[in-house]
# Entry
Amino acid sequence: MLPTMTITGYTIEGQIGQGGMARVYRAIQDSLGRPVALKIMNPILADDPAFSKRFLDEGRLLASLQHPHIVTIYDIGVIDGLHYISMEYVNGGDLRERIRGDLSPDAALSHMLAIGSALEAAHDAQIVHRDVKPANILFRLNGTLLLTDFGIAKQLASNKGLTVTGSMVGSPYYLSPEQALGHPTDGRSDIYSLGIVLYEMLVGEKPFEGDSEIGIAMRHIEGELPRLPQRLSPFQALINRMTAKHPDDRFSDMTSLLRAAECLRNTGTWIDTDMAMPVTRAAFARGSALKLEAHATTAEKTLLLTKHGQEVPASADDQQSSEIGHKDDRLESTLRHIILGRITKFATVAGVSTLVGVLVASNLKGDKKEEAILPDTTSTQSAKRSGLITRTEQDRQIELEKQVELEKQAELEKQVELEKQAELEKQVALQRQAELEKQAELEKQVALQRQTELENQAELVKESELAKQAEINELLQAAQTALSEYQLTTPTDASAYYYYQEVLERDPQNTEAVVGFSKIADRYHELAKAAFDRQQHKKANYYITLGLRVKNDHLGLLALRKQRVHQGHKKRRPVAHFFQNVKRIFE
# Structure
């Protein structure tokens, strides 16, 4: 059964949430056929301008923000006295469920950066959220995080706040001290709330609990935030700064916070110089190669933010001052330059020496070969040269014949290869043609099947329309019978009024049903006139009332009611005159 509330342009499917001033429904936007979350203000509050302004301001605030981590607003308006906001339907759960699933430190830091970037965009637009909590942080099915519910947000540029001065707004578990005290707030209040959310993501529980909202708020004002477990110590400085009791002791803005969080994610540490919380580092021993190597080993092992969240023990050298560390950095750099320079020079000299040695050895070998082939006598040289020329010509002829034979073989192989290639291409073309024909046949079958389905669907629609029309005809016939028997509005489930209502539910444009209400009013007009003629004024009034309920603009009934009122005045005048005469007698 559909909810009683209706918003033109939307089909409401069911309620998915409820707050102090509004209910949230899952609905379908009829024009686009997409699911939306439809937030509808409580009708009881609609007449209050303050509540109405607050509700509409939320929609305008959200619509003005365009950010990948802020929920999208589609529409906002007022219809039939109902104030509504149409927004993106997000069904991937909220951050509360992720926290119960034991988030890793890396995931917690990534979520905090995403929320922070959304708040940074809001603050740039002079908007403070003031209700940052896991329930207002949703997830799409693809894992995208979205900040929502700016219901108590406030524009910094506006002199008129959305709450009364001195009142406390927001969830008590995530309140900043200034919110708990009802003091003015700015973006640093959101930084505090985000720090509490980060603590809960890391530890898995809220830092402050209590039996009452006031008790929890007082702990935010006066209580000390519990320290993180040792395995999460790299986050301690960041959380301390975010959740400082006084706004001036926190990050000055969301951009500064995001820069520090990025540093923590990229390097595994963050030094809070303003809060005097230095992070120690390994130092180099001056002029000692062994300590330089020891430092390198220590540096490789140092990882403050490991994947498993474990802390690596610090070495003895970690107790040296930051100033010595900087001097030793310069010493290490100088030593590296000197060593690299000497190695380069040594490599160059060694390379040149090796090349010279190779050239000298080659020359020596060449001299020995030349000495070995020098002829002993001129005649011996001529004889050898003649025999050599003869053999060379024969070898050349044989080589040419071999080359011709090889070229012939290569030509034959090439021809065979071309024929194979042509045959293969022919087979591929035939196969492709067969596939195309098969595809065409398949598409033809699909088209025929689709045509059959459309015809069947049209037939079903036609049958449905015929059945609907037959039902309407039966209802109209029943209404006519009830009308003739003067069963106008009673009994409630078998009267002419009931049957005409049923017809209009199936066909709102049915003219016969619309005219039927006028017929019912006509019948009541006849009954009222007859009652008047019989001086049954009470019954006449009853018929007039029933008739006007069916059709409030029926001219005959309105005229009778006016006539009845006039006659009533006439009757009261003689009575009043009589009592006045009696009064004069006794005077």
Summary: The chain is about 60% helix and 10% strand. The beta strands are 10-18, 22-29, 34-41, 73-79, 82-88, 127-128, 137-139, 145-147, 154-155. The domain at 10-88 is CATH 3.30.200.20 (Phosphorylase Kinase; domain 1). The CA atoms of residues 120 and 255 lie 7 Å apart.
